[in-house]
């Protein structure tokens, strides 16, 4: 049975955010203060029949549906693989060996000694159907995602078949933060589990906290492919987005038309989406979002997304003030209040760092931006 540990983070400077480390570890074990923790197992919830996937309870993965698009020999190979519950994705690139990647392993595993042919790629496309404007497609009724790589002529020459799983217990480490009713931004590199967290967040907010939840699902990754959303999101509603470039418009539409208390949006990446987030937050709606990055400093340095945590501006200090602060005269400060009062760095699947806005005037960012690391 696993437990959650919260440890304050000592910072070398003030950034306007308080920080806390959150770990998942086995009961009876001592938490280890390192970013490279091994995944641990947690209990099944209320007797739910589910399989454990190295740390979390997998309620459903529909793996057979994803394997159906693969060539028969690869399908059989993976069905008999004892590590199939850890499968992350299957890579099919024209003229190369097909490859499977598993959770907790660096590199991949070749599935056979012959290369992928154009015929096999075409057969896989016929099963998947049409790709969207972002070169992504799904399998109806599942959470899987298939992404295409195209040649200069527009032909599909590669497929990334990514496994989507409905996982319960994934947000235990930050469940308490939902009680504040404040917006939360999850920051992490690709593959660390941000979308899985969004899915579980939607279910908990809708079913356990009884909020009116609307998901803006740009690539149908959170709620699954098809017009009927996957059961993993519970009672949350889902709005699909015709084109990725229209995500910010659908976000505003969700607020104006459907009276949500909470909006979830995955992969905030453009200035228009950042501005839409601020507009929604100023209307009193709670936001749960994700963005690519690893640390708070990545968002501070990103001119497109820095507004999510208040923005950055250059301020010139007087001589006396600079001496009092023991810093240079030109410094960087936060412009205003953040759109997301909480920012969570997903450094590993079971090791997160939570930053919360401190309730006093903006504090200089300069030292952090110029390379000082956090002290763990």
From TrEMBL:
GO-annotated molecular function: ATP binding
Q: Ranges for the AAA+ ATPase domain? A: 180-336
Q: Name one Pfam family in it.
A: Spore_III_AA
UniProt keyword annotation of Nucleotide-binding present:
yes
Annotated InterPro entries = AAA+_ATPase, P-loop_NTPase, Spore_III_AA_AAA+_ATPase
Q: Which UniProt keywords apply?
A: ATP-binding, Nucleotide-binding
Q: Which domain of life is it from?
A: Eukaryota
Q: Does the keyword Nucleotide-binding apply?
A: yes
Q: Which PANTHER family match?
A: EXPRESSED PROTEIN (PTHR20953:SF13), KINASE-RELATED (PTHR20953)
Specify the protein name. Answer: AAA+ ATPase domain
């Amino acid at each position: 049975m696993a437990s959650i540990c919260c440890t304050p983070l000592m910072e070398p400077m003030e950034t306007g955010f308080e920080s806390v480390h959150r770990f998942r570890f086995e009961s009876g074990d001592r938490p280890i203060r390192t970013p490279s923790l091994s995944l641990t197992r947690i209990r099944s919830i209320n007797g739910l029949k589910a399989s454990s996937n190295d740390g979390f309870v997998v309620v459903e993965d529909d793996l057979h549906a994803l394997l159906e698009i693969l060539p028969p020999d690869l399908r059989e190979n993976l069905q008999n693989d004892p590590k199939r519950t850890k499968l992350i994705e299957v890579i099919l690139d024209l003229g190369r060996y097909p490859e499977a990647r598993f959770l907790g392993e660096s590199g991949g595993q070749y599935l056979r000694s012959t290369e992928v042919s154009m015929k096999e790629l075409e057969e896989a496309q016929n099963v998947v159907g049409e790709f969207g404007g972002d070169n992504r497609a799904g399998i109806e009724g599942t959470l899987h995602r298939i992404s295409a790589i195209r040649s200069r002529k527009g032909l599909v020459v590669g497929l990334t078949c990514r496994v989507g799983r409905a996982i319960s217990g994934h947000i235990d480490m930050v469940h308490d933060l939902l009680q504040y009713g404040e917006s939360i931004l999850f920051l992490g590199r690709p593959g660390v589990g941000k979308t899985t967290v969004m899915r579980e967040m939607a279910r908990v907010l809708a079913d356990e906290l009884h909020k009116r939840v609307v998901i803006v699902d740009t690539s149908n990754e959170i709620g699954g492919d098809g017009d009927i959303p996957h059961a993993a999101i519970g009672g949350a509603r889902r709005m699909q987005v015709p084109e990725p470039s229209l995500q910010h418009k659908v976000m505003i539409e969700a607020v104006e038309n459907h009276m949500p208390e909470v909006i979830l949006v995955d992969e905030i990446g453009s200035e228009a989406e950042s501005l839409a987030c601020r507009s929604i937050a100023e209307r009193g709606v709670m936001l749960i979002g994700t963005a690519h990055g690893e640390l708070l400093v990545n968002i501070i340095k990103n001119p497109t997304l820095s507004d999510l945590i208040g923005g950055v501006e250059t301020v010139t200090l007087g001589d006396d003030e600079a001496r009092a602060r023991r810093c240079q005269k030109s410094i960087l400060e936060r412009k205003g209040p953040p759109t997301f009062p909480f920012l969570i760095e997903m450094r590993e699947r079971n090791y997160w760092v939570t930053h919360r806005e401190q309730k006093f005037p903006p504090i200089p960012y300069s030292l952090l931006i110029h390379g000082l690391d956090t002290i763990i």
